[in-house]
């Protein structure tokens, strides 16, 4: 918790809306495209209070390099949490306003610490594997191809979780 408090005070302000993204996954069919994550970040960043934290693990090196390159090209300001100890990742995820993730390990960590969550599923059944606490939703591809999930589907779901009652 001390790690998360220090991390947050270093990179974010009290009134920021911090949205976490996990762009990788050990299994390529479980990865929503980097292009989709970039488009989503651009849409969400229309609200100047929204700030981004991207979590990256050891298996995500290639995807992370592509994401960083595209984020720079789109002038998106992103904070990264890379290859951190699992207990520190859990503490940071617990402070997020929302976490949008592929079907991967950090999804389960965010679920456990009861972070507001949108998990994206392609071939794996979300009804079986997604966390199911309050404010934890999943979007299942209708075709089993995770990239058939549209940016608008994720964006609209994010708005519902960030602005309950609207």
Helix-strand blueprint:
Layout: H1 2-11, E1 17-22, H2 34-44, E2 50-56, H3 61-73, E3 78-82, H4 86-95, E4 98-102, H5 105-112, E5 117-121, H6 126-129, E6 136-140, H7 151-162
What does this structure look like?
The protein is α/β, with parallel strands linked by helices and 166 residues long. The protein contains 7 helices and 6 strands. It has helices spanning 2-11, 34-44, 61-73, 86-95, 105-112, 126-129, 151-162; strands spanning 17-22, 50-56, 78-82, 98-102, 117-121, 136-140. The chain has a 6-stranded parallel β-sheet with strand order 3-2-1-4-5-6, sandwiched between helices. Strand 1, helix 2 and strand 2 form a beta-alpha-beta unit. Helix 1 (2-11) packs across helix 4 and helix 2 (34-44) crosses helix 3. It is globular, with a radius of gyration of 14 Å. The termini are far apart. The model has no long low-confidence stretch (mean pLDDT 95).
Instruction: Output the strand order for the largest sheet.
Output: 3-2-1-4-5-6
Count of strand segments = 6
- Number of continuous helical runs: 7
Element-level helix/strand string: HEHEHEHEHEHEH
Give the averaged pLDDT, no decimals. Answer: 95
Low-confidence stretches: none
How helix-rich are the residues, as a percent range?
40-55%
Q: Quick one: overall form?
A: globular
- Report, as a whole number of angstroms, the end-to-end distance: 32 Å
Share in β-strands: 15-25%
Give the biggest sheet: 6 strands, parallel
Secondary-structure class: alpha/beta
């Amino acid at each position: 918790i001390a790690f998360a408090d220090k991390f947050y005070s270093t990179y974010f302000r009290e009134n920021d809306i911090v949205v976490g993204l996990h762009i990788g996954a050990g299994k390529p069919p479980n990865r929503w495209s980097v292009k989709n994550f970039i488009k989503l970040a651009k849409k969400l960043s229309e609200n100047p209070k929204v700030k981004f934290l991207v979590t990256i693990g050891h298996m995500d090196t290639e995807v992370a390099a592509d994401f960083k390159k595209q984020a720079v090209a789109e002038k998106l300001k992103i904070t990264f949490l890379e290859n951190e100890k699992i207990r520190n990742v859990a503490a940071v995820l617990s402070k997020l306003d929302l976490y949008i993730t592929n079907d991967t390990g950090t999804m389960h960590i965010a679920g456990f610490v009861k972070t507001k969550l949108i998990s994206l599923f392609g071939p794996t059944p979300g009804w079986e594997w997604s966390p199911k606490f309050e404010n934890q939703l999943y979007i299942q591809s209708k075709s089993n191809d995770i990239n058939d999930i549209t940016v608008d589907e994720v964006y609209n779901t994010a708005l519902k979780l960030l602005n309950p009652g609207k």
